[in-house]
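Quick illustration, no need to memorize.
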Amino acid sequence: MKRILLAMMGSLLALVVAAPMVSAQPENGGAPVEISGTIPPEEVATYPGACSFPMQVEVSGKMKTIEQGNGDTISIFPNYTVTVTNTDTDEQATFNVTGSNHMSTLENGNVQTVMTGRNFALDPVAGTFVSMGHFTFVSDPTATDPAKVNVVPVSGTGRMIDVCELLAEEE
């Protein structure tokens, strides 16, 4: 399970609270659990796709991962919000990200993630963004070079908000 969440963090690199989510995940039959936490700028900066300015990410809401029995998982995020702060300017934006992530391991060992609804993500190619719609990417969970984690970049239909552009310091 931790590998799947780290893959999300590494290529999306997805939902920015891997450690608290791993320890708090309920069983398949349980209700979603409350998640909240703050990821400091020095940690966010380690993820490929993070903004060029220091940013803090705060998350709050509920989360549940459902094991599909074949190794695939679905993670849902009801009542989930992400607040991103540019700590240089104190500019911040809060996003309702109540989407879901469908993760499956492909025959070659890569992990395909399909994001539906509203999701927050960090991606080495797309950057830091909020997606609304249906987006897919494929990551290599064995890649040691963060720049090579994404083997198929994020693509899909819908809308993407560039969080870095939104919170960038005005010239």
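The helical segments are 2-12, 18-24, 41-44, 163-167.
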